[in-house]
Design a protein that fits this description.
The chain is of the alpha/beta class. It has helices spanning 42-53, 71-84, 95-109, 115-118, 185-204, 210-232, 235-257, 263-266, 269-274, 278-293, 297-305, 313-330, 344-360, 362-365, 373-385; strands at residues 12-15, 30-35, 58-64, 88-93, 132-137, 149-154, 159-164, 172-175. Bound molecules: fe (ii) ion (FE2).
Length: 392
């Protein structure tokens, strides 16, 4: 996938504290809101409603999303949306909420589409004839507000499936850090590590243009310099740090949408299987995948900006991998899959399967160094036991 001559694919980004007020400028008549009832306070609901009704529109809170969605839920919600007939779809919440809203939008505008058709990569019909979508992230990590991807679970076998098309990119993403201030520390840490992984992986992706690399490296640096303060909740700098991480997470999303995620995402098979948060596993794998990838100009740039030790490209890569292990520790995150709570026997029974699945992932195939099956197994075992990542 060489997309360096394609226009940058992104939502229109509306950024800043209070930017939710942009909703009032859209002058739409019927808004359907997809949200997470646990994270959306009554005050936020009232605020959203007021922004829409002041222009004579109406607003219905149509789907309360608590988990990664099943296909059946999507189709049921899409039916409800069809009977309401909105011209504006607002998703306010984390990745699952935004992913659900993307799929509801797709099936609302294409009621005859089958699930199988919706899963064909980059083959979805044009969206936006009936409604536009606005995404308002309340976590700082998935980047779903600006990505072309939505993730679902098949309830039959609990397998994960991905819809991918630039048509799924929301028309607008409102990056209002006021929604990130109340994020629990663990969620801030996990989602922040997901965003860091997106940025570092996009920065070395073989499909990344120079501009995408700049966006990715800027986001990575912002997260590395601010996530610890953001999670620690140090009073005098928490709000600014949270805001910086909130914006950086979206930019990391822009970067992967215009390149691809990388090895840690390809290798996050244990997380899905054992029910460990995606961001935690990605952040844990990241030092290992960085060391495995080996010297790369983007790692050197980042390591130099962080003041890490060189002088060779290999030294900078090793210093960065070491720094990332330490970064997990500073965030009180585990640095091995064993420490993350996965029992040894069931992990080792599945490790060959995990390695096989990891090698099939597009994120793995677009990485600068693709492991062999043996290397993939060794990488997973090293991550399990927390063996020091070493650049070869
Ligand atoms: Fe991710």
């Amino acid at each position: 996938m060489d997309n360096k001559y394609q226009p940058l694919a992104t939502s229109n980004l509306i950024v800043g504290r209070g930017s939710i007020n942009f909703i009032g400028q859209l002058a739409k008549k019927r808004a359907a809101v997809i949200y997470d009832g646990r994270a959306t306070s009554e005050a936020i609901k009232v605020q959203l409603k007021e922004l829409i009704t002041k222009n004579g529109g109406e607003c219905l809170f149509i789907a309360d999303i608590k988990n990664e969605p099943y296909f059946n839920d999507i189709l049921r919600y899409a039916e409800e949306m069809k009977s309401y007939n909105p011209d504006l779809i607002i998703a306010i919440g984390g990745g699952s909420v935004m992913d659900t809203a993307k799929a509801m939008h797709l099936f609302y505008e294409n009621p005859d589409m089958s699930i199988e058709e919706s899963l064909r990569p980059f083959a979805l019909p044009k969206l936006g004839k009936k409604a536009i979508m606005v995404a308002i992230p309340t976590t700082s990590g998935t980047g779903s507000e600006t990505t072309s991807v939505a993730v679902f679970i098949d309830q039959k076998d609990k397998s994960k499936h991905i819809m991918i098309s630039n048509e799924l990119i929301p028309a607008y993403a409102i990056i209002d850090a006021n929604f990130a201030d109340t994020l629990p520390k663990t969620v801030a840490a996990h989602t922040g590590m997901d965003a860091l992984t997106h940025s570092l992986e996009a920065a070395v992706c073989v499909a990344a243009s120079p501009m995408v690399r700049s966006i990715a490296l800027g986001a990575a640096l912002d997260i590395l310099e601010n996530l610890v303060d953001s999670v620690a909740g140090i009073d005098e700098c928490k709000d600014k740090a949270r805001e910086t991480c909130h914006v950086a997470a979206t930019l990391a999303g822009v970067a992967i949408t215009n390149s691809c995620a990388g090895l840690a995402h390809g290798f996050d098979q244990p997380g899905a299987y054992f029910g460990i948060p995606h961001g935690l596993v990605c952040g844990l794998l990241l030092p290992y995948t960085t060391a495995f990838t080996g010297p790369h100009p983007s790692y050197t740039v980042l390591a130099k900006r962080l003041g890490l030790q060189g002088p060779s490209e290999r030294d900078y890569c090793q210093s960065l991998a070491d720094y990332l292990v330490d970064f997990n520790t500073r965030l009180s995150l585990p640095i091995s899959l064993a420490e993350a709570g996965i029992a040894e026997k069931p992990f080792m029974e599945k490790v060959d399967d995990f390695a096989g699945l990891a090698l099939m992932a597009m994120a793995t195939k677009l990485s600068p160094r693709i492991p062999t099956l043996e290397e993939a197994k060794e990488l997973l075992k090293n991550c399990y036991y927390g063996k020091k990542p070493v650049v070869k």
